[in-house]
Amino acid sequence: MADKTTEKALQSIENEDEFEEFEIEDWDESQEDPANGQLWEQDWDDDNVDEDFAQKLRAELAKSSS
C-alpha cells in the first residue's frame, strides 16, 4: 500500500518539472516595432550612491545608531 502512495507522489513531483514548449519565432528587425526599441533605462542597475534615498537612509541610520 505504501508503495502505491510513494509511486503516486513521485509521479506528481516528476510532472511538476514539465514546462510548456513554445515555438521559436524568427524575427528580423523589419518586423520589430521601432516605438518599443528601448523599453528600459540602460543604467537601471547602476549603483548611484548620490541618490536622495541613499542620503536619507544614511541620515536615519546615523540617527538610530547614536
UniProtKB/TrEMBL annotation:
What does the entry list under GO cellular component?
A: nucleus; proteasome regulatory particle, lid subcomplex
User: Which SMART domains does this entry report, sorted A to Z?
Assistant: DSS1_SEM1
Which domain of life does the UniProt lineage start with? Eukaryota
Q: Which Pfam families match?
A: DSS1_SEM1
Q: Where is the composition biased (Acidic residues)?
A: 14-32
Subcellular location(s) per record = Nucleus
Q: Where is this region: Disordered?
A: 1-45
Q: Where are the coiled-coil regions?
A: none
What keywords sit in the KW lines?
Answer: Nucleus, Proteasome
- Can the keyword Lyase be found in this entry's annotation? no
Matches recorded under PANTHER family: 26 PROTEASOME COMPLEX SUBUNIT DSS1, 26S PROTEASOME COMPLEX SUBUNIT SEM1
State the family it belongs to.
Belongs to the DSS1/SEM1 family.
Can you name this protein? 26S proteasome complex subunit SEM1
Lineage, highest ranks first: Eukaryota, Viridiplantae, Chlorophyta, core chlorophytes, Trebouxiophyceae
